[in-house]
Amino acid sequence: MKLDTRWQAAEQVSIPLNEGRGSIVFRNVVKKYGVVHAVDGIDLEIRSGELVTLLGPSGCGKTTTLRMIAGLELPTTGTLAIGGTDVSRLPATYRNVSMVFQSYALFPHLTVLDNVAYGLRMGGLKTPLARDMAEDALSLVGLAGFGPRLPSELSGGQQQRVALARAIVLEPEVLLLDEPLSNLDAKLRRYVREEIRTLQQRIGVTTVYVTHDQEEAMAVSDRIIVMEQGRIAQMGSPAELYHNPRSAFIASFIGEANLISCVAAVDADGSRVAHVHDSHRFAVPTSTVAQGDATLVIRPAAISFSTGTGAGMPGTITSAAFLGDRVLYGIKTPIGRLFHIEYVSSIRHPDGTEVNIILDPAKLHLV
Amino acid sequence: MLGLAAYCLAPWYGVEYGIFERDWIDAGGLLSEAGASGLLRLVLFRDAAMAIPAAVLLFLVAIGFIKPASRLLLLFSLAATILALAAIVIDAFAGGTVIRSLGYGATIVMTMLFLSATHLWSRLGRDNRDAFVVSSIAGVCALIVLFVFYPIAQILVQAFVDRQGAFSLPGALHIAMGGDIWSVGCIAGKSRCGVAINSIILGLLTATSTTVLGLAFALLMSRTRFPGKPLLRALAVLPIITPPFVIGLALILLFGRAGFVTDIMSGLLGLEASRWLYGLWGIWLGQTLAFTPIAFLVLTGVVQGISPSLEEASQTLRADLSSTLRTVSLPLMKPGIANAFLLAFIESLADFGNPVVLGGGDNVLSTEIYFAIVGAQANMMRAAVLSLILLVLTLTVFIVQKRWLGRTNFTTITGKADNGANSMLSTGHKAIVYGLTLPWMVFTTTIYVMVFYGGVVRLWGQDHTLTFAHYREAFDIGWSDGGIWWKGAAWDSFWTTISISAIAAPLTAALGLLTAWLLVRQKFAGRSTFEFLTMLSFAVPGTVVGVSYILAFNSAPIELTGTGTILVLCFIFRNMPVGVRGGVAAMKQLDASLDEASLTLGANSFKTLRHVVLPLMRPAIVSAVAYSFIRAITSVSAVIFLVGADHNMATAYIIGLVENGSYGLAIAYSTVLIVVMLIVVTVLQLAFGKRRLRREDRVGYQPPRPVAA
Ligand SMILES: Nc1ncnc2c1ncn2[C@@H]1O[C@H](COP(=O)(O)OP(=O)(O)O)[C@@H](O)[C@H]1O
Ligand SMILES: [Mg+2]
């Protein structure tokens, strides 16, 4: 009894955009668990060969989105297409999509080689051929010769690479990675994420990468999709998100920022400004917010200060933490508490120092 | 395309073939009216009811060829398939002039229709389940309905049908309200109590004593440095492989009128040998011996589940050992203790072996049901009414246990490695625990010594010379010209028991584990109801199952009484919950992402089950098989109603021996059963029990995630 062919009956719905291999299109996709809207109506397009990260705080629906691409969950409503084919009702077994799980999910009773060959064998390939291909995939991730071991006899980083090999050996249309670095120690993370990126570029597979770590997201992605409460908050390249955050949420999530509530206004000369507490006025030339309540985003890089008093805003240093290559200052100011980072090797301004703060208008944002 | 065609065609050819076999062998040819296949019935005998399945089957084959079938078409064929199934069922129950039981052909046709219905459902793509999952869910449900609920429904019907076959509500009420059931005379010391009251009193007594002893043993095991722990573990396992009435027998050998202790007592103190053992007190003693190990196993989990850090916290807050136990540990254990109590209560209500051996004049519900059926005036109505009462009692307790205790579970078993150790008992508490457990251990050991001793004594109470005569009588082997000649009286029932249990055990384990897999890994509407129902069948007392099976499967459309099949079915559905529970526990240890990984790698759910889940579940499978095997061999209550002339089971045979007073033979036979089970279980464990994962034994164990995952 061969079951899989029946799914070829899935209707070929032509969706105008993105019909390339491994392209992904979400059209108003909703996933409900009972009353919880885990994913609450998202539209997005991922181009063939792109590496896109889903970024957002815990519980925002990243994993659910990823699992819908994998076919482990089906959308409650909406359409999902992969490579131009509507797969909204197609279970995981019949999709050409591979996933690397957060826990790696290596089969503990199978050797590394059999783990990698598993998908090929399930696809009906003869064992010797499957093993040859698995060997190749293992060498691709730098684990040649590890085939006969059991997963439990590998380190965390090696297990991770086995999981990766197991996924790419099937030459999937789409590669999915759910927080692939979360079980590695901090030192290994940077190294492994570079490896993943290099491998992805080499084989050119469309990749969706889930993480809650913005630094990781910025380091590996072509594009980042920031999610918040089951919706897409903003998507764009890392630089776009950093320089043009569309909301306070994005601003605080991508890079570090001081957020100060303010009122946006346009001055008589047409320049855009932000008023804080009616008493302070900052020019924000890049602002796209014309009027009304808003949030002023002050990146640490926008702040500079000198000791003593001066033309800028007065402030008092309330905390200073030495972090090796930089010093983190907390500063009390009339518009609220700000933090600032100085890349120096010792604390130069102890608590209580009175300072004069200058904000660089070119580096301020209003959202 | 080819695969689809093969998929759809192969089963249907199977069906045609099957139809031609309907009742063929026993009815002597296809052309006779009774022996005809469905097709021939339609053509030759103008049995119009046969047209519906044929039409639907043909239609389904046609559908199989249409590749991108539209939703509407699929829905329509699904409806047609269900209709055909319903038609067959209705025809079987009501149609035709002669009610005939269903043969192979009908069974195969129905199975195929059923499979295509589930297959069509999964093709509708309502959810991401494949045909295997849908068939499994629907199949398990159908089986449970057919072999658990349908028989019980038959009891419900029978309870209101009097001897003349007429519906009689007053009759039922008359039985149900009878003084012989509800009288409380014994409390006032005047007369005997009713059987239901006896059952309840006994249940309360047994639940109390087993819970207290079980708790004491659990504390002894995990909170003291008691040196005899290995012995304790062995003693805890023994009763599981002991047929339930064996302890009763041993008690008779000790305290009966010709008993060992009775003799000594009358010699020393001049006490008259009395029949005190035969009655509630005796049953209580027997049940306490039999069920304390169960309470012990349950409570060990509870006692060890208390996080050591809580107790350590209490001690750093200046509580001493004794007040820590009183103020922290015991309150935390309360739900667990209540759970053990209710479990023991249910066990006691359902127990048949001890009351039948030790009951004497005091009957309880389970034995009263038995006597209503096998007694002089086989009174089915009375048996059915009593069964209902017993069922309502156990189910009430069961539901209380699930609903009330299901939520308040304080035990703090976390995945985290909790270092630190549970605190020891204080000296005072230790004295109590030792005082309770040590005498009891001695007593239990004596009982088992008695079991072995009783089998090698010529005639208990009169002639204590050692002899193997009983073993020889039961298990003699001779040589005749043809080969081995099984001369002993017990061989017949022995081989029946072994083969029926050996057939039932793997099936039980398979069904139980499949159900567990569905429960743990599949989300579907009504999942919790499904779980509740599978567990519910566990709470149905064996006696009730026995009665329900004779009522349900004694006549068409499903006629099974007296066959080995009914015994196998009975074992499967009685013991399945054990497999389910073991499977659920084992499966929860397996990270779900293992299954999901397999699915994303292109395996369907059947392949996933076979290549990933089953290999990782091996220890659970082995224990499920072993446990079902043991329970099949040792069970009495349901079996006693179902054995037939051709299929006598060991336990039923032994009960017969006891009723004839052949204690020596009975005990010798029981001993052999115990030894056989011990061997089988040990071999199973040694051969298949180990999982080959080398270093890591926690399968798919996920390291604690960072909080913001
Ligand atoms: N199987 C499930 N059943 C019910 N709720 C779920 C399930 N899976 C996820 N959720 C809920 O959906 C939301 C999104 O979850 P998830 O996608 O796992 O978030 P993330 O991966 O971004 O942390 C959460 O509120 C979570 O509680
Ligand atoms: Mg997640």
From TrEMBL, chain A:
SMART domains found in the cross-reference section: AAA
Membrane topology: Peripheral membrane protein
UniProt KW keywords: ATP-binding, Nucleotide-binding, Transport
GO molecular function, a single term: ATP hydrolysis activity
Compartments where found: Cell inner membrane
Entry-linked InterPro entries: AAA+_ATPase (IPR003593), ABC_SmlMolc_Importer (IPR050093), ABC_transporter-like_ATP-bd (IPR003439), ABC_transporter-like_CS (IPR017871), Mo/tungstate-bd_C_term_dom (IPR008995), P-loop_NTPase (IPR027417), Transp-assoc_OB_typ2 (IPR013611)
Coiled-coil blocks: none
Chain ranges of the ABC transporter domain: 24-254
Main localization category: membrane
Any one GO CC term of the record: ATP-binding cassette (ABC) transporter complex
Annotated PANTHER family: SPERMIDINE/PUTRESCINE IMPORT ATP-BINDING PROTEIN POTA, SPERMIDINE_PUTRESCINE IMPORT ATP-BINDING PROTEIN POTA
Family designation: Belongs to the ABC transporter superfamily.
Annotated protein name in UniProt: ABC transporter ATP-binding protein
Organism of origin: Phyllobacterium myrsinacearum
